[in-house]
Each structure stands twice: as structure tokens, then as C-alpha cells.
Amino acid sequence: MSKTAKQTADAFAMPAFDATAVTDQVREFTEKGVAQSKEAYAKIKDQAEAAQKTLETTFETAQSNGTALSLKALAALRTNTEAGFAHIEALFGVKSFGEVIELQTAFVRKQAEAISGQAKELQAVASKAVEEISAPVKSAVEKAIKDVKVA
């Protein structure tokens, strides 16, 4: 082969293809992808378990606070019903219309005070319930935001 022919052949020759280098690069890329997928799965699994625990705690707290609120409402209802029956019994024993007015006025005043106190108690129980129910959710959201900022 002449020198010119060799130069022409060299100019148009394809560079040598090293398949092992490509295979190594593909293997390295795949291993990195698998490692990243395992990491992402572990993070998602941990977050899902934390969310489940938060929900369980929240529901248990909601249930116990709902029970407490129901019991407080039933106690108020019982007290008001007993006061109503006692008032009716007292009305049966009156001798004049003036006594009826006096008893009725005292009863209404006493019931207004009782209902006001009961409303304050129910409000306190409800406020406590809201705080206890929202606390785990709030901390979980704050933790998730913190984790997102770190990542």
C-alpha cells in the first residue's frame, strides 16, 4: 500500500471500539441507580411508617377526647334535666302566682349560670382536644418540611 493510500485509509478509519469500557460505564450507572432507588425506597418507607404512627396516635387521641367531650355533655344534660324536674316539683307546691314568678325567676337565673359554666367546661375540653389532636400532626409536618429542606 502506498503512503497516500495508507494516509487516506487512516483518515477514514473508524476508531477502535472498546466494549469493556462501555460495559463498565453501564454497570457503574446501573449500580448507582439501584443504590439511589434503595435509598429513596428506605426514605419513603420510613416516612410512611411515621405517617401511620402519627395517624394512629391522632385517631386514638381524637377518640379519647371525643369520649371525654361526650361524657361532659351528658353530665351537663343530666344536671339540667334534674334541675328541670326539681323546678317542676317546686312549682307544684306553690300557693300563689307571686311564688311562681319568684321560683321561675330564680330557676332561670340559676340555669343561665349553670349553662354558662357548662359551656366554659365544654369549651375547655374541646380546646384541649384540638391541641392534643393537632400536636402530632403539627410535629409530623414540621419534621417532613425539615427533611425536605435537608434533602
Automatic annotation (TrEMBL):
Domain Phasin: start-end pairs: 43-140
Highest taxon of source: Bacteria
Coiled coil (UniProt feature): 34-65
Key words of the record: Coiled coil
Record's protein name: Phasin
Species this chain originates from: Phyllobacterium ifriqiyense
